[in-house]
Amino acid sequence: MRKLLLAATAIATVALTSQVQAAPVTVDPGVLSSQGDINAVFVFRDAADASQLVRQGSSGVLFNNQVDAIGSTVSAGSGNGVVTFTLNNLTTGTSFSTGVADTGPGGDSFYHAVYSSDFSTFGVGALSAVAAAAVANLSGAVTFVGFEDLRDGDYDYNDLIFAFSPVVATQTPVPEPASLALFGMGLLGMSLARRRKSASSGR
């Protein structure tokens, strides 16, 4: 009975660990874009490290997770096209940007920011009352951006989450299988033509 209880405990521990430890995102999540004045809301934090959020091309810090309160709202300037936000982890000295792949310790490339129009996809429950009230005051499309703040972290992408409006996420187009097949056939045809030309000039 004791062995059975220990085995059940071990299985439960493994299951719990696998829920906490997620996989890094290796597929390009795309870019963020906006038309007009952008507002940002600090909606969630689960990070011990001190970090700052900035917008590339703009001066100043939007949020500092050790100073600013959940529900804080700031102007992130105006946008006319692609906008990039960067999380600077002050504790580790690393920086991660939206839409930019990072090379991890093992040499693999992955992304440190993911986007969603639905906060529940981050798996941290509902927005707090103060964050929900701040998001409700935003006008236009709202996109939530969740960051993984460590290069070798747990990849749950909910260390720091911000809401931006009016901001939309646009996925990077991936070639369709049919297009890839046509491209491959074209390469094969070029290779055969080159081979025939070499064979005829060698006669």
Automatic annotation (TrEMBL):
Positions of transmembrane segments = 177-193
Q: Which domain of life is it from?
A: Bacteria
Q: Which InterPro entries match?
A: Ice-binding_C
The Ice-binding protein C-terminal domain is annotated at 173-197
Know the name of this protein?
PEP-CTERM sorting domain-containing protein
- Name the keywords, alphabetized: Membrane, Signal, Transmembrane, Transmembrane helix
User: Signal sequence span per UniProt?
Assistant: 1-22
